[in-house]
Design brief:
- The complex is a heterodimer.
- Chain A has a single domain, classed as Orthogonal Bundle (MetI-like fold).
- In chain A, helix 3 crosses helix 7 and helix 7 runs antiparallel to helix 11.
- Chain A contains 13 helices and two strands; from the N terminus they run αββαααααααααααα.
- Chain A is mostly helical.
- In chain A, a hairpin with an 8-residue loop joins strand 1 and strand 2.
- Chain A has a two-stranded antiparallel sheet.
- By secondary structure, chain B is mostly helical.
- Chain B has two domains: 56 residues; 208 residues, MetI-like fold.
- Helices cover 70% and strands 0% of the residues of chain B.
- Chain B contains 14 helices and no strands.
- Chain B starts with 8 loop residues before the first helix and ends in a 5-residue tail after the last helix.
- Classes of the chains: A mainly alpha, B mainly alpha.
- Chains A and B meet through helix 1, helix 3, helix 4, helix 5 and helix 7 of A and helix 1, helix 4, helix 5, helix 6 and helix 8 of B.
């Protein structure tokens, strides 16, 4: 083994180069993966979106911005954006309220805290496919013996076909409750972590100042202290709602026929059928992907600005 | 909250209300799991009866063997595919992203901030939104209907590298310096000193990646079109959307598909919770 003085001299000479090499040894594989599988697809899709490319992934004819024009004027594309807005309008506030409510309750549960936390978090281990299966074939299966219809009759209503009819749009209940069940535990954990970080002396000070233990401490201490967590949760909820695919695809597809009804199509389902369905239209599919990527980037940035997300220590 | 717990009838009533609400919510949350078991152990005829039944009259354990014999769905094969894909993807992802996290946190390099910025930027563009262009690239490489295609493209998750970087920033420098003085190289320091002392974060990222990988649907649906390359989720989905599916077998299959994750969840919950709490970036 070389003695320390010789090593330190060698290090002084070779140090910077060595560091450059070591940096790429460590970061290189990951960076390469990001370039090939995250950045290159985006660049390639910008190129493809300017060409005609049907049934082929190599561009055939340059069409300029025509694909974008087609997408923006396509009523189905716009309706997929409306579907997302409707979906987000339900799922974002509902998940937020339930996650926060459960976190506040679980946080006060004393010895049973760990137990309840596990119970509310365990659906995270379940996939959207399996949950869709339970929701579609058991809870909301439309049969008189299904769980939802049994409850309906108990409270004096008739059985319903929950998923197969667009009017009234009861399928939203199925879609929203499924995602709620799957994701609420995850966000509850984020709120619980946020609650842990609130300094105890704030509550002590409030109690000295005569704040009532329930509503006033919640309103003037807990909620303001959870501001950063709340902002992060809202951004994540929106981004995840934007990417919804699994439950729509599995709940609403027609058994056997392999077709999708004309209603309840969020953006990714729409893109899936444009690019990978019968049409195999990669030109329009890429234009759609670029538009959605732009939308989500703008979305995230605007949300971040508004809510102060992204400042150090705002989550985690 | 370390509050002083007041006693008296009001406090008892409010505690009863608290536990009452929690218990009702807990039961509602567990109903779907109960339904999987009940349906998976019933007959199809029993499930289509107009009256609700809490338990099947006889437990139909042979639903599982019928499922494995069912020629129309390659369920066993899909289980194997999922195991291969999830294990390899988790191993690869943890290996590559932990190294990246360490490099970004510890190795001085002039453009480190730029590299980190690029990685962070990809966090803003969720992979699901770019599945069409990713499909295009992966077909160019010729990876459609291959294990590589299922495993590698979704292996590079910025959130994992980010988690590791944040963790390594707080790793005690003294330990690493001691290793250097003992003559270990950068790699040696990392592999022999840093990794063995960071088991918690590795377990956290590995379990979150494994759950995501096992439950993934859109990418395997797009890349593994061929029946031979179906993952469990794709197989279940096509079973679900088949003409007149065998409902009880479908639920037996679901129970089997959930099982590995439930076991992992029970064993590794501490790490999963830690991972989720460290960052909200995982979807």
């Amino acid at each position: 083994m070389a003695g320390p003085p010789a090593r330190s001299l060698k290090r002084r000479i070779l140090g910077p180069q060595n560091n450059n090499m070591w940096f790429w040894v460590f970061v290189g594989p990951f960076a390469l993966g990001i370039v090939v599988f995250a950045l290159a697809p985006i660049v390639w899709s910008v190129v493809l979106s300017l060409y005609e490319a049907r049934n082929t992934i190599t561009p055939t004819r340059f069409v300029g911005l025509a694909n974008y024009g087609d997408m923006l004027s396509d009523p189905e594309f716009r309706s997929s954006l409306y579907t997302f807005v409707a979906f987000a309008a339900f799922i974002v506030p509902l998940t937020f309220i339930f996650a926060l409510g459960l976190a506040l309750l679980v946080n006060r549960a004393g010895v049973a805290k760990a137990f309840f936390r596990s119970v509310f978090f365990v659906p995270v281990a379940c996939s959207y496919v399996v949950a869709s299966l339970i929701w579609k074939m058991s809870i909301f299966n439309g049969l008189p013996g299904g769980a939802a219809n049994t409850v309906m009759r108990l409270v004096g209503f008739d059985s319903r076909a929950w998923l197969s009819k667009p009017h009234p749009p009861l399928y939203w209940i199925v879609i929203v409750t499924e995602r709620l069940w799957l994701q609420v535990g995850f966000y509850m954990l984020l709120f619980l972590a946020g609650l842990q970080r609130i300094p105890v002396n704030l509550y002590e000070a409030a109690s000295v100042d005569g704040a009532s233990r329930g509503w006033q401490t919640l309103r003037f201490i807990t909620l303001p202290q959870l501001r950063a967590t709340s902002a992060a949760v809202l951004v994540l909820l929106l981004i995840n709602a934007f990417q919804a695919f699994d439950e729509f695809y599995n709940l609403l597809s027609n058994p056997g026929a392999g077709t999708y009804p004309p209603y309840g199509r969020p953006p990714l389902v729409y893109l899936y059928y444009i690019a990978l369905g019968r049409q195999q239209d990669f030109g329009h599919g890429s234009a759609g992907a670029v538009l959605l990527t732009l939308l989500i980037a703008i979305f995230t940035l605007a949300q971040g600005r508004l809510l102060g997300f992204g400042k150090r220590g705002s989550y985690g | 909250m370390a509050e002083v717990r007041p006693t008296g009838p009001r406090a008892i009533a409010s505690a009863a209300a608290l536990y009452g609400v929690l218990a009702v919510a807990a039961i509602l949350f567990l109903v779907p799991f109960y339904l999987v078991l009940r349906n998976g152990l019933s007959t199809d005829i029993e499930l289509s009866r107009p009256r609700w039944k809490y338990f099947p009259s006889t437990l139909q354990f042979d639903n599982v063997s019928k499922l494995f014999d069912n020629r129309s769905i390659p369920f066993l094969r899909s289980l194997r595919n999922s195991a291969v894909v999830s294990i390899l993807q988790t191993t690869g992802a943890v290996f590559v992203s932990s190294m990246a996290g360490y490099g970004l946190a510890r190795i001085p390099y002039r453009f480190a901030n730029i590299v980190f910025g690029v990685i962070l930027a990809t966090l803003m563009i969720p992979a699901a939104v770019t599945f069409v262009p990713s499909f295009v690239i992966v077909s160019e490489i010729g990876w459609i209907d291959t294990y590589q295609g299922l495993i590698i493209p979704t292996m590079f998750q910025a959130f994992a590298a980010f988690l590791f970087r944040q963790y390594f920033l707080g790793f005690p420098l003294e330990l690493e310096e001691a290793a250097r003085i003992d003559g270990l190289s950068t790699w040696g320091t990392y592999w022999r000193i840093v990794v063995p002392n960071s088991k918690g974060i590795f377990a956290a990222v590995a379990s979150i990646t494994f759950i995501g990988s096992w439950n993934a649907f859109l990418w395997p649906l797009v890349v593994g079109k061929d029946q031979d390359k179906w993952t469990v989720q794709v197989a279940l989905s096509s079973f679900l959307n088949a003409q007149s599916p065998k409902v009880s077998q479908l639920f037996a299959a679901s129970a089997i598909a959930i099982l590995p994750l439930l076991i992992a969840f029970i064993l590794l919950q501490r790490y999963i919770v830690e991972g989720v709490e460290r960052t909200g970036i995982n979807g």
